[in-house]
Amino acid sequence: MKNGFRQSMAWLHTWTGLLVGWMLLLIFMAGTASYYREEISRWMRPELPRSSVSTDLAAQRAVDYLQAHAGQAETWFVTLPQPRNPAMTTFWRNPEALADPDKGRRGRFGNATLDPGSGEELNARETRGGDFFYRLHFDLHYIPVLWARYLVGFCAMFMLVAIITGVITHKKIFQDFFTFRRDKGLRSWLDFHNVSAVMALPYHAMITYTGIVTLMFMYVPWGVKAAYPQDEARFFAEAFGGLPDIATPADGQAVPRPLVQLLDSARRHWQGADVSGFTVTHPGAGNAVIDIRQRDGKRLSIDTPTLRYDMVSGTLLQESGPPGGATATRGVLYGLHLARFADGGLRALFFLSGLVGCLMVASGVVLWAVKERPKHARNGRTGMGLRLVDALNIGTVAGLPIAFAAYFYGNRLLPLQWEARADAEANVFFCAWGAALLAAFAWPKRMMWTGQLYLGAVLFAALPVLNALTTDAHLGNSLRQGDWALAGFDLAMLAFAAMLAMCGWRLQRWTPPLSAAEKKKRAVTAAADAAAGHSGAGA
Amino acid sequence: MMLLALSLAFSAFTALSLAMDKPPAGAPGSLPARPARRRQWRVVGWALLAAALAVCVGRHGWALGPVLWLGTLTLGGLALAFGLYPFRPRWIAPLAWALPALSVLATLL
């Protein structure tokens, strides 16, 4: 290691950043995209109706559908349409006896996405939409979910160390607060990395720390194990559940109260707050209960208040209790990470900060290569370490945007009626990224950088065009109808294309800086020319 | 309301950058100003930051307000450091005066 505290921190910052930098780029890009996952999902299912029916009507339609298709289920779980997500999701759990043996653990469950207007199941193309990016950023893909979460957690903890050591090592953090000197090579890269890190420092620290908190029971499980040695499930029920399970249905059928009445009772109890969804346990039985959840309002916490009503008598049975201090703290931290409370402007600021985070990580890994290269130039050839970093940099910083664009191309171009198209879309993403990485490993030079950046720009720019050629949800229509989710997506694609093109163009025009010896030679030649010119003019 | 908060944050950071001992690259050659002047800019800067926080909290409460405030600071700071100081330093002073004024007008109307 190095002498001196600051130097040790600098060494630690470099290595914790570099070793997980490329994985962090994937996590950050996918996570940032997730801020708009509902809008992305809408763009990827343009067949979805845009109707807005009242909450009560939607709820009634959901219950009617479930009565018809899942009448024997133990539990119904309904998420009502939201302003940003017009579809309605339903989910149910069948009794043990009716489980589908072919599906293993999942055999007891069923789900359906409904159109709240018609009450019928949605007839739109199979796709995971924006949820692919959401899952990608902590479950990764192709590997067991548990491994992925440990890996992502490991990277997040390294990033936390990188943030802290970065701040310690940045001696002139206040003096250089606004400093960005452009066109100065290594100096500019360092300034860019510093400013992008410091300007969004609260965000970067928050998103990394809260990300670890969301999976904290995986990473630090021993407290729960020590306090609840036999029965960990009871810890979760006590800390978060609040409302106990009702194991057995009562005998006989009973007619429940009208749904509207129950929902209105909840709204009155909450003094106006609306309903985001509900869960019905033992529908149709004498002891059927409905747990009504409040819509994510102006609270930071992820835990939403829930009311439990007896479905037959309509009386309020229980209310989710005020959480303990630790639970409430975790709820707020979790809530900050998911940012469900964020609307229009605030969500845009979160998205911007996420993008700045991507730029911070990208500039960091590139900065390392820029700093390292002169040491190799002296030897005349590039060492294996630098070549590896160069290849990974190109394949990830320029290659991942290509993969993102390819995913959207897959959505528009794969056959509509194919059931496996959701998985195929994900495969397209990884094939594109793999191709970019392979190309980068084959030729990790500046030409490959410009090539991939330009390719990304072209793909993004052509996406709204493809949209117009394949669907009705193109910019012409979406702007006219004021559908800002769809229009915003296409416009964002154009904005990304412009950014990538600008980067590619600047890189194409870049010339290497002159060495000290070369500068001296040119100065001597220039002086000689000036002297000759002088004497020529004088004569 | 968010436009107002953003404008206040931007102007606040402009004032604070004028108060620095070593102004950012691209700043007019007349900087750094005399210490008394710099002190004034520092006071103005912090006051505008507080005003931006007040606007955010007033509109959105103490839960979402500070979160929104930090977001506006990020955007304001990035606009100055990546956009204006390196490329258009002469736009900074006019914008720092005009933006809050226009935003206040827009809010009142």
Protein architecture, described:
The complex is a heterodimer of chains A (539) and B (109). With 539 residues, chain A is of the alpha+beta class. Chain A has helices at residues 5-34, 37-44, 55-69, 131-139, 145-169, 186-199, 201-214, 216-219, 222-227, 232-241, 259-269, 325-338, 344-379, 384-413, 421-442, 446-470, 475-481, 484-509, 516-538; strands at residues 75-79, 88-93, 109-114, 275-281, 289-294, 306-310, 316-319. Chain A has a 7-stranded antiparallel β-sheet, covered by helices on one side. In chain A, helix 5 (145-169) packs antiparallel against helix 7 (201-214) and helix 6 packs antiparallel against helix 13. Chain A is elongated. Chain A starts with a helix and ends with a helix. Chain B is built from 3 helices and no strands. Chain B has helices at 2-18, 35-87, 92-108. The longest helix of chain B has 53 residues, at 35-87. In chain B, 45% of the residues are buried. The mean pLDDT of chain B is 91. The chains are: A alpha+beta (539), B mainly alpha (109).
Query: Helical percent range of chain B?
Result: over 70%
**Largest pleated sheet of chain A:** 7 strands, antiparallel
The SS-based structural class of chain A is alpha+beta
Could you give the order of the helices and strands of chain B?
HHH
Q: Determine the N-to-C terminus distance of chain A.
A: 65 Å
User: What does the average pLDDT of chain B come to?
Assistant: 91
What is the makeup of the main sheet of chain B?
A: none
Principal-axes geometry of chain B comes out as: globular
Q: What is the number of E strands of chain A?
A: 7
Q: What structural class do the secondary elements of chain B suggest?
A: mainly alpha
Keywords:
heterodimer; A: 539 residues; alpha+beta; seven-stranded antiparallel β-sheet; 7 strands; 7% strand; elongated; B: globular
Briefly, what is this?
The complex is a heterodimer of chains A (539) and B (109). Chain A has 539 residues and is of the alpha+beta class. Chain A is 61% helix and 7% strand.
